[in-house]
UniProtKB/TrEMBL annotation:
It comes from the Eukaryota. This is LRRNT domain-containing protein. The keyword Repeat applies. The keyword Repeat applies. Pfam families: LRR_1. PANTHER family: AGAP008170-PA, INSULIN-LIKE GROWTH FACTOR-BINDING PROTEIN COMPLEX ACID LABILE SUBUNIT. Keywords: Leucine-rich repeat, Repeat.
Amino acid sequence: MLSLSVVEAAKCPEKCTCIESDVTCVGANYSEVVNFIRHDHFDKLIIRDTALPYLEPLPLTSVFYLEFSNCQMTTIATDAFKRVISLKQINLDYNLLTVVQEFENLEMLQSFSAKANLISQVSSSFFNNLDTVTKVDFAYNLLDETDFLEPLNQTLVTLDLSHNLFQQIEISNFSQLVHLNLTHNVLRQENSVQLVNLSSLVTLNLAENGISTLNVLNLTSYDTLKTLDLENNHLFSPLDVSNFSSLTNLQLKNNRLTQLKNNRLTELPLIPPSLKKLDLSNNNIVNGSELEFVASNLTDIKFTGNGMTSLNKNAFANLNKINLIDLTENNLTSFDVRFSDAVMDPGFVALSNMHLQLDRSVIANGGRINDEYYSGKAFFAMFMCPHMNIAFSPSI
């Protein structure tokens, strides 16, 4: 009889999936789940879509990943995780939490996520003595201050505060911070983004903030940043990001850039030489007659959806590493450009008035363009846009 009881107790609860040491329950009876995890060792416990307004203390367990997502949770007991002895990751996404208070026994915590709640306040002592936390996600909440993060200034690597209510933010002396997401806040006034002594910062996302000039950003160190996302703002020309000396990826999609001139005579170059990927899609760059990129490391350029009517023949002639040029959804009726002799295998040029693409990567090494042959070059066209006059020629 005793043996049978143990077998029954160890049976995976209804609406749960139990695979090796992982338990995932969707809409399950929470009491049954709690009773189940008392009797064995588990690494991951995932509870989703289960009505659980108040989270009581969990039983003694050794799970290292704990998730309660979309559980209508509003309150959590301060000792809820006290007996979860190996807890490293907590996921409380998509609940109804308004405040996050300090919890007991989180000394091993590495990652905390409470995305998409109603959080407007986090206890200033929440992260005290948690010197192992490297990732924090409070996206889609109601936060407007960051003081609670201060205890993590020597450990935090990834921070997501996107879709909150920040009008001003200062993050200083976070020596390990690599990825910072501030998308969709209200960071649009001068010096509203103060990033001081972030010596490891590689990725910065400031999309969807209503930014019109880069004076919103006060960054004391420019030489580590590699990706800067400024999509969906109100930026206009001229725009100078040349001081970002290590930048490789610049996202400027959906802004208000109206003119683009980046030739040898330009006093304020648009981009640093290090840049590899540049997205200028859906701006207002109609006239490309003076567009000429200086020699750089650019490999990918996107001009999709600008309504461009003209393009300088030498626009890309100085780019020795170009691989992708996207000119779809423009108003070009001809395409006659020169490429550097060093460009042996550009990926493709995308051209369209009718949402079609011209692809030159699918044709082998040899092809006929304007009755001339350029063997060994990949400057070849498959005419999917017959209304266009298309020509490729080597630079002179």
